[in-house]
Design goal:
The complex is a heterodimer of chains A (about 325) and B (about 325). Chain A has about 325 residues and is mainly alpha-helical. Chain A folds into two domains: about 45 residues, no CATH class; about 240 residues, Orthogonal Bundle (MetI-like fold), CATH 1.10.3720.10. Helix content of chain A is about 75%, strand content about 0%. With about 325 residues, chain B is an alpha/beta fold. Chain B contains eleven helices and twelve strands. In chain B, α3 crosses α4. Classes of the chains: A mainly alpha (about 325), B alpha/beta (about 325). Chains A and B meet through α10 and α11 of A and α2 and α3 of B. The complex binds adenosine-5'-diphosphate, iron/sulfur cluster and magnesium ion (MG).
Chain lengths: ~325, ~325
């Protein structure tokens, strides 16, 4: 197991290297001159040229890449063109905000999705099954921005139950420690703030979690249906076991492996898709950080942001691979 | 009469499908006496598995359903029992083992946990006591290195070992009736013999009645005291093993016996019953065996024969054996 983990970690090196390469060159393929963008239309050609030299943009592109890669290896993500500050210092609060949101979204998606799938399979062709699967179908096909706006309109404007934007109360900001506010408010022992943070998480969490929830529900249902037809489920029933345990114990553990794969993939997609949700809900996450940098052609920030998200995606899938063994003893590493 | 552990009367189990209702079990009647081994024989598709699942209350529903008849277990009609009552009976009073040992154990749980699960459902034993009992059961079914085995997963065991585990699991709560649905069909010949011997031993030692389902007459001859021959969802002949092998009454039983390879008498060429098993419900009128029967006559295609008792207490469903 340890051996396998190390081998898998080793095999990530070329993947991460390839990713840095792709991100670097794609971003440079976008037309436009960052020096010109920074200085504005009215700046003189000489000023722009000197800024280009300062930023290293005149070097051959291969040299630029190796510079970048060398810095990466020392944990240096570069300097933001726009703010002139170190990206590795800036990026964490944004990343933390996204991770917190993604965590809540996946928590909702997995809990609701898995249970809805189980009950749909257990009570196949019942009203519950039909309703859940229709809702799931609507869920996967619903545009996230539309869902987000509807949530804001209904739960914030109409009912005034939940805050519509941000991740904390402006009047009572959270004292950041880890920048994961759920954690920080608990560390500070401020329960009021904790619940405020939770309230802020609900609407964007649901908006972001709906598509994975629907996909997880459908996957769980079909996987459970297949398992529940199998011989060992009949054996469990022949022992006199009650249906609740036949379903949640004997079936679920077997049915969970394909669901786990979907959860891993969806977590990655969700990190990438967070940008829409973050924009609608003014969520200060990494998606917004990258999005704003695109407007300024802040190359270093864009590539760092994408690279960080891609790296998390790769690691989530590694964790999923390692988790397979926990569910299926037949898998040997 | 009171000697009957199980008495099935005119049981009808149907499956609904697009083509209508399929009577997989179509008025079957038989009984199992305390401590005996009853063999139920018949070609594949004649409703043997559906019969045993009906007794267990495990017919997949939908599409399956018990539409008529009664299943008396110690006098209690199981067709009318609640699911809660059935849960008490399953694994405790009536246990079952299946044809497919390779897939009948849950692949993601340890053998020990699966054994102890059944014990702890039906007894109030502590974990420790249940563990000891599980170990005892594994030894009883002739497995060795049982403490290691308790910690193993099913995929680490051979088919024969898994079937032994299934038997241990079934016998763990000392049931009065064990239903064995083709327990050796999927196993090698040598392993088959061992498993059958084990079942015979357990039958004698623990006085458990066994309903042994098979399509192998050789197995029946070795194991059983009585046979019920099934055809197309019904019993067509029933009687003691000696009577039926010496003097089969029903043309179908005769055909079955003639098609067994090494039945004492040496034959030049192996006989096989012409035609195929009809789909359940395909034959609406007359004797279901008529299209394949060499002795069929005019009456057979028109009227369905009853299961009649003959002079020696055996039963047969054939117009040849009705008076006049
Ligand atoms: N789950 C099911 N759904 C529909 N029909 C079934 C099902 N199980 C059994 N049947 C029907 O019952 C008939 C008898 O099946 P079975 O009892 O398994 O035969 P066997 O004697 O080989 O055990 C089959 O031919 C099939 O038409
Ligand atoms: S009733 Fe007729 S067709 Fe049926 S088994 Fe007897 S002789 Fe053959
Ligand atoms: Mg069968």
């Amino acid at each position: 197991m340890l051996n396998y983990t190390l081998r898998r970690l080793g095999s990530l090196i070329p993947v991460l290297f390839g990713m840095s390469l792709i991100v670097f060159f794609i971003i440079r393929a976008i037309p436009g001159d960052p020096a010109r963008t920074i200085l504005g239309e009215k700046a003189s050609e000489a000023a722009v040229e000197s800024l280009r030299a300062d930023l290293g943009l005149n070097d051959p592109i291969v040299i630029q890449y190796f510079h970048y890669l060398g810095d990466l290896l020392t944990g240096d993500l570069g300097t933001s063109i726009r703010t002139s500050s170190e990206i590795s210092g800036d990026i964490w609060p944004y990343l933390a905000a996204t991770m917190e949101l993604a965590f809540v979204a996946m928590l909702i998606a997995v809990f609701v999705g898995v249970n809805a799938g189980i009950l749909s399979a257990w009570f196949q062709n019942s009203i519950f099954d039909y309703t859940a699967m229709i809702v799931a179908l609507i869920g996967v096909s619903m545009p996230v921005f539309w869902l987000g706006l509807m949530e804001q309109w209904f739960f914030s404007l109409e009912l005034n139950w939940l805050p519509s934007i941000g991740r904390e109360s402006i009047r009572d900001p959270v004292e950041p420690i880890t920048h994961l506010y759920l954690l920080d408010t608990l560390i500070n022992g401020n329960l009021d703030q904790f619940f405020t943070v939770v309230k802020h998480l609900i609407l964007p969490g649901v908006a972001l979690g709906t598509i994975p929830m629907a996909i997880i529900a459908r996957m769980t249902r079909s996987s459970m249906l297949e398992v529940m037809r199998s011989d060992y489920i009949r054996t469990a029933r022949a022992k006199g076991q009650r249906m609740l345990l036949v379903v949640y114990k004997h079936s679920l553990k077997n049915a969970f492996i394909p669901v786990l794969t979907v959860i891993g993939l969806q977590t990655g997609l969700l990190l990438g898709g967070a940008i829409l949700t973050e924009t609608i809900f003014s969520w200060p996450g990494i998606g917004r950080y990258v999005y704003e940098s695109i407007q300024y052609r802040d190359y270093p920030v864009i590539q760092s942001g994408i690279l960080v998200i891609a790296t998390i995606f790769v690691f989530v899938n590694l964790i999923v691979d390692l988790l397979y063994a926990a569910f299926d003893p037949r898998i040997k590493y | 009469m009171s000697n009957h552990v199980l008495e099935v009367n005119d049981l009808q189990t149907c499956f609904s499908s697009k083509e209508g209702t399929i009577p997989a079990v179509n008025g079957i009647t038989f009984h199992v006496d305390a401590g005996e081994i009853l063999g139920i024989v018949g070609e594949s598709g004649c409703g043997k598995s559906v019969t045993s699942l009906s007794v267990m209350g495990l017919v997949p529903s939908p599409p399956g359903n018990i539409n008529g008849g009664e299943i008396l277990f110690n006098g209690e009609d199981l067709t009318k029992a609640t699911e809660k009552r059935m849960r008490k009976i399953r694994g405790n009073d009536i246990a079952m083992i299946f044809q497919e040992p390779m897939t009948s154990l849950n692949p993601v749980y340890k053998i020990g946990d699966q054994l102890m699960e059944g014990i702890r459902i039906h007894t109030k034993l502590s974990k420790k006591k249940a563990y000891l009992q599980a170990v005892d059961m594994l030894e009883l079914v002739g497995l060795s290195r049982v403490t290691d085995l308790m910690k193993s997963y099913p995929h680490q065991l051979s088919g024969g070992m898994r079937q032994r585990v299934m038997i241990a699991m079934a016998m763990a709560c000392d049931p009065k009736l064990l239903i064995a649905d083709e327990p050796t069909t999927a196993l090698d010949v040598t392993i088959q013999k061992q498993i059958l011997n084990l079942m015979k031993n357990l039958n004698e030692k623990m006085d458990t009645a066994i309903m042994l389902i098979t399509h192998d007459l050789g197995v029946v001859a070795e194991m059983c005291s009585r046979i019920a021959v099934m055809y197309s969802g019904k019993v067509v002949e029933e009687g003691s093993v000696q009577d039926i092998f010496r003097d089969p009454k029903h043309p179908y039983t005769k055909g079955l016996i003639d098609s067994v390879p090494d039945m004492r008498v040496k034959k030049d060429r192996l006989y096989s019953i012409p035609g195929n098993v009809p789909k359940p419900g395909a034959i609406k009128q007359g004797c279901a065996f008529a299209p394949r029967c060499g002795q069929a006559f005019s009456r057979c295609a028109k009227e369905t024969p009853e299961l009649l008792e003959t002079d020696n207490g055996a039963k047969v469903r054939c117009w040849l054996h009705h008076e006049q």
